[in-house]
């Protein structure tokens, strides 16, 4: 059993994501936008839908909703993420997007405001998941929908699993991903447990569906850049490599990509996402 550690403070969390924001926007959001599109597939989000994206990053869920015509409020703790989300919305001419700096555990928003409140790998990372879900429920109108999307099993997030495998092969003593407890992004990997968490939070009509999304990585370097920028843990893995180890990891990943693609330097990697919905 891993000894419990003191949770990071809000300021520490904000600083960590602010630091990652430039790389996250450049390397991670282009991939996770595909996840956002799939999470919204089949939902009744369209022109005029009042849509809230909690812990929005630089827009992987908010912008697909806005492209459907929704009136979007997107909030994130990190100002640098909010700046990049707003810039993306302006570049696409998406006028009905408001990007705000806000703590998702303490939303400065009125009760019963939104038709849909959603989060993609956002509220699932909160130190207090229950508080985050309660806030999403509070600001969603009666009969509205709360949608939460989070990673499936780590082995089914190939961009992570492949990198962990390459690091284990190249770096003696690399510990890999902790499992007890797992990192916060993987706290809701089991669909039954995910549904139970929402029911315990007071939601009704809970459903959890799994979607497998393929995204293209053009090179091993792009894959490593995505890992480095996607989460503080990934940044720690890559930052700790010597130049020689980094080269070795890149070479291993290059071989894996070429094997998947039949010789080309890039390949499609797959990620399983659990998409849960419920009515507050």
From TrEMBL:
Pfam families: Methyltransf_11. One of its GO terms (molecular function) is methyltransferase activity. Keywords: Methyltransferase, Transferase. InterPro entries: Methyltransf_11 (IPR013216), SAM-dependent_MTases_sf (IPR029063). Its EC number is 2.1.1.-. The keyword Methyltransferase applies. GO terms for biological process: methylation. It is an enzyme of class 2 (transferase). Residues 52-147 form the Methyltransferase type domain. This is Class I SAM-dependent methyltransferase.
